[in-house]
Recover the amino acids of this structure.
């Protein structure tokens, strides 16, 4: 399905982005690998070529640098002539209670998780409209369906992502452009290490939930299976959190009680 397809993955230097890149490479895709860390992208690109990628283009990118995105899109088109799939996978998480979150941290999370994804999608969408085909995907989260303690800002961005891309799917259907939202639960990736504390600084710890989460390669295979089946929404996870949206619909009181039990006690002076 993806042989010689041009697949652009952001957040490709680690975690889900890297794992999906390896799966795409195994199918012979032409990869565009983007993230801020060029050295890590070069490592992933080398591994992707060994895994079977037709070509790789390392394209360092900060999704919050909105003025640079148009030029990056032009670079991809210059190299490959088209863009068949965009996987918006750049993202940052949070580990802080609402009472400890400063506005600078909220703004940073929104710039990366929402505005950066929207801006790049808008730029790539114009290419896909001209070529009259394409597939836009985004990594959301179970947090885009339910709320949890110490994740208020992250949860808000993922709810926004779900809503925006669901609306985009409706609008682009008539133009032969598919839109898929990926909804992972806890995955064993380093996402919590770079998560923001209340002051906007990195958390720099691996959370026990992520450490016990679904293997990232297994997650990538679930995502690829969803792509092959043409799913508009792909759930990827194996923990109890994957039942969250179902419980919210069928038994909301039970869901609220379960999430409240997991909330740390506030120390109020």
């Amino acid at each position: 399905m993806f042989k010689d397809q041009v697949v652009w993955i952001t957040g490709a230097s680690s975690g889900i982005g890297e794992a999906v890149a390896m799966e795409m490479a195994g199918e012979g895709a032409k990869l565009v690998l983007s993230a801020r860390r060029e050295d890590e992208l070069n490592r992933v690109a080398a591994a992707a070529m060994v895994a079977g990628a037709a070509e790789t283009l390392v394209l360092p990118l900060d999704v919050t640098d909105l003025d640079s995105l148009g030029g990056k899109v032009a670079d991809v088109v210059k190299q490959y002539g088209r863009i068949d799939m965009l996987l918006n996978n750049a993202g940052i998480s949070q580990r802080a209670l609402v009472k400890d979150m400063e506005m600078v941290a909220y703004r940073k999370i929104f710039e990366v998780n929402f505005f950066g994804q929207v801006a790049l999608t808008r730029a790539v969408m114009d290419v896909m409209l001209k070529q009259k085909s394409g597939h836009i995907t985004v990594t959301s989260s179970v947090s885009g369906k339910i709320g949890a303690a110490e994740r208020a800002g992250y949860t808000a961005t993922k709810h926004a992502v779900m809503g925006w891309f669901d609306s985009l799917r409706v609008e682009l259907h008539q133009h032969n452009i598919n839109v898929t939202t990926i909804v992972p639960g806890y995955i064993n990736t380093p996402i919590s290490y770079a998560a923001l504390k209340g002051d906007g600084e990195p958390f720099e710890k691996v959370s026990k939930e992520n450490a016990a989460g679904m293997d990232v390669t297994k997650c990538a295979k679930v995502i690829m299976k969803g792509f092959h089946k043409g799913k508009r929404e792909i759930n990827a996870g194996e923990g109890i959190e994957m039942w969250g949206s179902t419980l919210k619909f069928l038994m909301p009181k039970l869901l609220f009680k379960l999430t409240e039990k997991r909330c740390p006690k506030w120390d109020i002076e």
